[in-house]
Automatic annotation (TrEMBL):
BP terms from Gene Ontology: carboxylic acid metabolic process
Recorded family membership: Belongs to the group II decarboxylase family. Sphingosine-1-phosphate lyase subfamily.
Keywords, alphabetical: Lyase, Pyridoxal phosphate
Single GO term (MF): aromatic-L-amino-acid decarboxylase activity
Name assigned to this protein: Glutamate/tyrosine decarboxylase-like PLP-dependent enzyme
Alphabetized Pfam families for the sequence: Pyridoxal_deC
InterPro entries: GrpII_AminoAcid_Decarb, PyrdxlP-dep_de-COase, PyrdxlP-dep_Trfase, PyrdxlP-dep_Trfase_major, PyrdxlP-dep_Trfase_small
Positions where N6-(pyridoxal phosphate)lysine occurs in the chain: K246
Amino acid sequence: MADALPEQGVPAQEILDELCALRRADQPTHGGRLFAYVYDPGLAGLDDLANAAHAISAPVNGLDPTAFPSLLAMENALVGAAAKLLGGGPGSSAPDVVGNVTSGGTESLILAVKAARDAHPSIVAPRIVVPVTGHAAFAKAAHYLGVRLDAVPVDPVTLRPSAADVAAAITADTVLVACSAPSYAHGVVDPVEEIAKVATAAGVRCHVDACFGGWVLPYLRRLGADLPPFDFSVPGVTSISVDLHKYAYAPKGTSILLHRDPALRAPQYFAFGDWPGYTMINPGVSSTRSGGPIAAAYATLRRIGDDGYLRLAATTREAVQGLAAAVEAVDGLRLMAPASSTVVCMTAEPGGPDLFVLADELTARGFHTQPQMHYGDLPASIHLTVTAAVAPHVAEFATALADAVAAARPLGPVQLPAEVLATVTGLDPAQLTGDVVAALAGALGMGGEGGPLPERMAVVNALLDAAPVAVRERLLVEFLGLLQRPAFD
């Protein structure tokens, strides 16, 4: 790695060449072969437009909208578009909906929890009720904000929580009930109407985490998909989060948090004037905000338009149906849930292939998937986030999947070294120091001359799957700490 602060400045083209060389080690962000982390509509010229828009507004600071009204105008326009899409605005059941652009889904969820917590300052130990399939960002919000998270189980077949279990989890200290539309892991829309009803009966806010699918579900419904109501048309839904950098296909760094009315949003703000400087007032976690992501999102929405999003949703739906059929056609695999949104989630039948080996075999065939660990009675699985760019590759994926399963069968199940397995299952997480984790990584072929990660990840994933949750978390914390070290020349 080159020195980030050389004695003499480096020519611009040389720097750009260095960046391009570094990017060649990354997963492909375009082309429909990466089923997680990125969202590709497959539209020519969209990146160039978004990058140009980003450059125009990158120097703008969202800290003070009176100094930079252009950013305020674009943010309000984005919020209005999201509100209209999700059942709010003039003429709707939520005519006074308000909102803000955030840096991503995690910030949106943190702010939803903050607003609910701060609306009840008399509650000393606030709690939130979240299905176990709710995004991990709720746990992060609870951790950051000092809120207790009460997890609600889901049915092992439908993968949905019951409203009765949600109601039973609500206490006098509950400030927020959450549900997903859809859940990230399995692509299942929770019973929002029923959950919102029990939240309303208890006098508690109900947040719908639609970060993942909120921008595409309304279009899928217009195309005839049988999806339950989840937006502001549902009485009792008090806030909704939706990411623009997912199925609105905007560049990374834009999500929207909507509240049904301004009074519900008010506790989201942070204001402070008890110091000699300017009085700080922020709607989000960050104070300084670059206008670049907001301008890029604004340009993206304007370029694609409502009709364009409907076409992209139709293309995505066809891809989902094709991928789901490919899974169902392979002996030894099954869908975790009907593929009714934009997720295809598969698991193995008894006697089927080792899923972690299967993920490696798919990678070897050019398709990068996301393995998921088992959870309670729910088996390990492979998650596919499907975008419009996947559609041209469905037939190719079907062939690759069948071939990968055939190759995985004789290679699995993964056998972990006995001493390694004993270490991860028997250790107190506090004993997992950096040195211990480095030794484990070395035993698994990680951190050598070939780089920090082996080419095949099945053994690593099997180890993480075998480890108790607290040990798994500590393993990853320490391993990430080993990776994130300053580079000195």
